[in-house]
Amino acid sequence: MSWGIDLGTSGRLLDGWRDWLLARKGEESSRMWIPLVLEDAFPGTGIWHWTHLTTQEQQQHAFDHLFILLIAFLSERDAA
């Protein structure tokens, strides 16, 4: 399933994104990339779906964390 900018670039912008997230996590998962990002942003809390974000602070943290991870992924991928 593609979302937003990934869809607009025929799925090419985020090539390897989910695999990169799984490699960081060091384990396998059948989840899509969104819950993987949320699990990374809120380790050990059981937050893995956007509806679990009940405060503006949690939403902001998830948003910020997504872009930190995305920038790291793109930088690492482009350096290779």
Give the low-confidence spans. none
Shape: globular
Roughly how much helix do the residues carry, as a percent range?
55-70%
Number of strands: 0
Radius of gyration, in angstroms, nearest whole number? 13 Å
Question: Could you characterize what this model shows?
Answer:
- The protein is mainly α and 80 residues long.
- It has four helices and no strands.
- It has helices spanning 4-8, 17-25, 33-41, 56-79.
- The longest helix has 24 residues, at 56-79.
- The mean pLDDT is 88.
Question: Any key phrases for this structure?
Answer:
80 residues, single chain, mainly alpha, 0% strand
Secondary structure: elements and pairs:
Elements: H1 4-8, H2 17-25, H3 33-41, H4 56-79
Helix pairs in contact: 2-3, 3-4
Q: TL;DR?
A:
With 80 residues, this protein is an all-alpha fold.
